[in-house]
Design a protein that fits this description.
The protein is mostly helical and 302 residues long. It has helices at 2-21, 24-41, 48-72, 80-87, 89-109, 112-129, 146-169, 177-201, 203-208, 214-217, 220-243, 249-268, 275-284, 288-301.
Length: 302
């Protein structure tokens, strides 16, 4: 009986590791938060081709990032998440190839306006993961740029582009470019806030790679305050967007609750926490608004 229990526990951990470190989890997070943008901005009209592209490109980029990253952190290769990533390296290569083919096909089907909109965030995202600079550097290897680059690219891809296209092509939606700017800042602040704990987690790795980040310069206490401030400002912007008829009560409440839960997780952050806390819980805050939205709708229909 004990052997069966241990076997089932081992299988559970194996499945969890596969889900988290094969990059499927972060891809699902990207799909969820982009879909929520469509629910908020487009009266529930989701562009599934675009959402599929976002999911596949996230799977591609994070798989590439992990494949390349483990080669740049050889001293950590036998530790924690790095050892698990090495275990799934062959999987990551396969996912990279398949998702790259899907992304190329989908990108080809997009109209030129969307291709132009995607050009900058796609180029920056690829530069973030690929060692295309002198000395084999990636964009993330330059001092202090990593966290701001992540926030900027995620905001553009998951919020700005869906919102911009809603304004341009659906004239019955009461949005304008001022609210587009506010929504983009709100999303960037949220991504910035949940990325700060990852900077804290990666402090030693970044130091060993001679990369300066906010976490190598500021204390955990100061970084948590910065993250919480970003979430507070994001909440204020979300309420302002509610007054501009961008958010409804149905879409605002899940955002506020998500920011509240995220604030609690930020407060609990410290460098030695299990990676399940970071890759599992903190990344999952991007899925929360969509889950809470459907729970809210379900409760209202009872």
């Amino acid at each position: 009986m004990d052997n069966l229990i241990h076997k089932n526990i081992g299988l559970g951990y194996a499945l969890l590791h596969f889900y988290l470190y094969s990059s499927f989890h972060i891809a699902i997070c990207a799909v969820a938060i982009t879909s929520y943008s469509y629910f908020t901005l487009s009266h529930q009209i989701i562009d599934y081709h675009y959402v599929g592209f976002v999911g596949a490109s996230t799977l591609l980029l994070y798989s590439l990032h992990r494949i390349i990253g483990i080669n740049k952190s050889e001293s950590y290769a036998t530790k924690g998440r790095f050892a698990i990533i090495i275990k799934y390296k062959s999987h990551l290569i396969i996912y990279s190839i398949v998702s790259a083919l899907y992304c190329l096909y989908t990108f080809y089907t997009f109209d030129w306006n969307r291709k132009i909109l995607l050009a900058i965030p796609v180029a920056l995202s690829l530069s973030y993961s690929l060692p295309i600079f002198i000395g084999g550097k990636r964009l993330r290897d330059f001092h202090f740029i990593k966290i701001f680059l992540i926030a900027f690219c995620w905001a553009l891809i998951t919020c700005t582009i869906p919102y911009y296209e809603s304004i341009k092509y659906q004239f019955d939606i009461p949005h304008n470019y001022w609210t587009l700017f506010l929504a983009t800042i709100d999303r960037a602040l949220f991504i910035f806030a949940i990325t700060i704990p990852f900077d804290i987690r990666d402090r030693d790795v970044d130091k060993s790679n001679n990369v300066q980040t906010l976490a190598t310069k500021f204390s955990d206490k100061a970084l948590k305050r910065i993250s919480l401030l970003a979430l507070i400002v994001g909440t204020i912007i979300s309420i302002l967007l509610y007054t501009q008829d961008v958010h409804s009560t149905l879409t605002l409440l899940p955002i506020i609750l998500t920011y509240t839960i995220t604030s609690f997780l930020v407060y609990l952050t410290h460098q030695r926490r299990s990676d399940y806390f970071f890759t599992g819980l903190l990344d999952s805050t991007m899925i929360l608004p969509l889950i809470l939205f459907f729970l809210y709708v379900s409760c209202m229909s009872i």
